[in-house]
Specification:
The protein has 602 residues and is an all-alpha fold. The two termini are 30 Å apart. The longest helix is centred in the last third of the chain and has 44 residues. Helix 2 packs parallel to helix 4 and helix 2 packs antiparallel against helix 16. The chain is globular, with a radius of gyration of 25 Å.
Amino acid sequence: MFNKSVPDSMVQYKWVALSNTTIGIMMASINGTIILISIPAIFNGIHINFLQSSSLVYLLWLLMGYNIVTATLLVSFGRLSDIYGRVRLFNFGFMLFTLGSILLYLVSVFGVMGDTAALELIAFRLFQGVGAAFLFSNSSAIITDAFPVDERGMALGLNMVAALAGSFIGLVLGGILAVFNWGYVFLVSVPVGTIGTIWSYWKMKETGVRQRDQKIDYVGNATFGIGLTLLLIGVTYGLLPYGTSMYGWTNPWVDASLGAGAFLLIIFPYVETRVKQPMFRMELFKIRAFAAGNFAALLGALGRGGVMLMLIILLQGIWLPLHGYSYASTPFWAGVYMLPMTAGFLFMGPLSGRLSDKHGAKLLATLGMLLVALAFALLAMLPYNFYYPYFAAILFLMGTGSGMFAAPNAAAIMNSVPAETRGAASGMRATLQNAAQTASLGLFFTIVLTGLSANIPASIGSSIAALNIGPALSSQVSGIISGTSPTVLLFSAFLGQNPVVPILQATGVYMQLPLSAQMTIAGKEWFPDALAGAFMSSLRMAFIIGIIMSLIAAFVSSMRGKKYVHEGATSIFNENDTQEKSTQISQNTAETREVLKGESGK
């Protein structure tokens, strides 16, 4: 039911807002994953040796730097949008993102090589991440402003489908473009970004509530931003070898970064309750729908955030070479074989969003997380040389569960807060999810590396014994490979590279091997087969962690209570607000006021 006084142009504007934000989110999501597949081509293009220890630093920053910057800025930018206008900052983010894409492409045009090129790419990816933070922090709030309550689940579902579809389009697109020129990986965003920026400035308009009289909370911004940055940087460097350890968790600088970051985040709620105009109103977490939705999203992202990368490593480093694919082609085909997960999300995302508009998020979101847990359990039972249709069915199931959870959960979160706090609320929702995804990478990598360290000597030893090169030479070769950092072996598999040949060549042992043994080791199947047993045993442990996190997320989701819409959560399109809300709000407005005053425990 709409307000008849609203012009037709404003009714049509909701589709303008949805299409603009969807293009922006899809573009940002494509860039979040396109580099996963194209890193081998990028490293080759700028002449970076993937076996050098410095290359691991570049690899991690190219993989995780974009997400770190995005995660740390989302809440701050969301709060700024509540003050200065969500559309204004969204448009500005579109422009920054496009400029970052141009700068990244120019690195390939000017032929910069080596460490300089790697550092420039990292810097421009961080710059690009700033633009993405403006896009992510405002898209959900702009959609919530533009759509009536009974259509938000559908609209947010379409937006999230675009985000996940962008993630998988990035995988395939990165594989295709990197074949021609690694610079095209960044160039592809330029025309889309340029057209999107122009269209956004031309068509988008402010429809949300603004708090022009509010001041910026510098203390809160600094506490949260610096704390989260230090925490995520500590997680990133914890994955790098330190001294004789295969991890950096014993590095005092890593420990200091993690400790300082955790301390700042712990005191952040205290700081915000003492500030007159805080960056984020902590009392929003006293609203059950908001708190349960955010914590369920955080746990779900922590459980499955690193899965995509682990499955890509499984495909690129093991399954595809074992099935005859060349190392050069594995990045592209890994993206193609991951598409069933996208199909599942495309199937269920909009449908579950629409259903949640009528029936609420509780049942759909909870069932979604249970399906994700089931998918993890099925993945844990697969052998490394699996039958692909089974694998594809499991990916489809995981995508379906994710789609069933994402749109209803986001709509429930955004409906539960007052209109004037939508920017900060949207930023907090995206921050918790992005930060959990980054932390999930660290968690999964640590689990897998620990398993590799324990199991790789036996796995490599049996593969070398099968070469029949004699006990002395077998022992020497086994010692060299087993002594190689598991991090190098794992990232080599991720990059679609066989590291054994250059490692043995560097020690002079390779030329001592019989020609038949050299050809076997340099072939497509020897390294994947030698790595597979050790990798799968540790990957199953990561899947078990995913099961546990998903089940806890399902439980938290089930505790969100009945369907709830905040009394100030309607849009300009709703007619007769009081009457309409009375049919949708299951908790009375008096209780809501008490909640926001801190007088209720919900």
